[in-house]
Amino acid sequence: MRSLLVTNIGELVTGDPNWGEGPLGIRRNAALVVDGRRVEWIGRATDTPVADARLDVDGAAVLPGFVDSHSHLVFGGDRAAEFAARMAGQRYTGGGIRTTVGATRAADDDQLRANVARLRNEALRQGTTTMEIKSGYGLSVADEARSLRIAREFTSETTFLGAHVVPAEYADRTDDYVSLVCGPMLTAARAAGARWIDVFCERGAFDADHSRAILTVGADAGLGVRVHANQLSEGPGVQLAVELQAASADHCTHLSAADIAALAGGSTVATLLPGAEFSTRSPYPPARALLDAGATVALATDCNPGSSYTTSIPFCIALAVREMAMTPAEAVLAATRGGAAALRRDDIGRLTHGARGDLVVLDAPSHVHLAYRPGVPLISNVVLNGELV
Ligand code: NIG
Ligand code: FE
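Above: the input record for the complex with N-(iminomethyl)-L-glutamic acid. Below: its predicted structure, written as tokens.
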């Protein structure tokens, strides 16, 4: 494997305060070498070792690759008409999930695979080097298993979301559907390589008891726990996530003071998904209160055809800064170290010795430009696993 020197970095965001100034650990006029897929050397641009290849970034900012810890890329069809109706005044309820379940079941494997590949490439071009991908639009044993198998072709961070909603054929038989999820569907999900289990804990989806039952049996089977929590209303999701020591409680849009205290006091990351609030015209999550209380915050896209059809972490960073009172540094940290924490990983989301060689070069001198220049394609180069892509 060839080593790569990245040099003349005006602002290197290491993501670790031990490695530079401030919470982002910023170093100026820096250089780094990626060798054997890992960051091997960090130092001054005036004093660089020899490497097989050299990328001179001419004073630009270099950041850890973005970690998108929440997406739903395996689906058929789209829901542009539902979005247009919402922008004309209709409310988002999650009812459209069943529309996508129908389109996903009707698609063949190659169509689903091509859709994931298209969206994964879109994300990569915008600086995302790690992406979690959920199932959840199959909702039968066979369709959840194939969704996870296809997701696994693109990432090791795959999540079984059989408990997204109760599918139409189980209407008024929620207990039977929960038994299916906890039994044969979970077995098939594990065989398909799922690493995580997730539940949409919300009125109209799964209540606290069903959610706890599903997540507990998943954890007992060796899967890590994540929860779609408090998206559409206050409810039990966040408290359940903290109780089960879930890696992440996702959405966190409607939080009580007790929810914020629980997240600040526990090991569960609060993953905020402002693309969903943007696309459903909803109030944004209370990021400032979470950060001030000491919670660990991640930012992710929630990319899906219903509530948030974006693959762009830079867009989410801009929303977090403008609409959620996060500073640019907090937003960048949440999209890198925060995402890594939400996946319980310490080899990504930072650029320090031994970290994976995943980085982005901005067409800008500072990370601040990600929010300062919204909607502008600022990612000029991406290095994934030590290779320039
Ligand atoms: O995270 N909330 C549940 N699931 C998705 C939305 C899915 C959809 O509308 O298709 C979300 O926002
Ligand atoms: Fe989601």
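Notes for the reader.
The two ends are 15 Å apart (CA to CA).
The chain has 13 helices and 17 strands.
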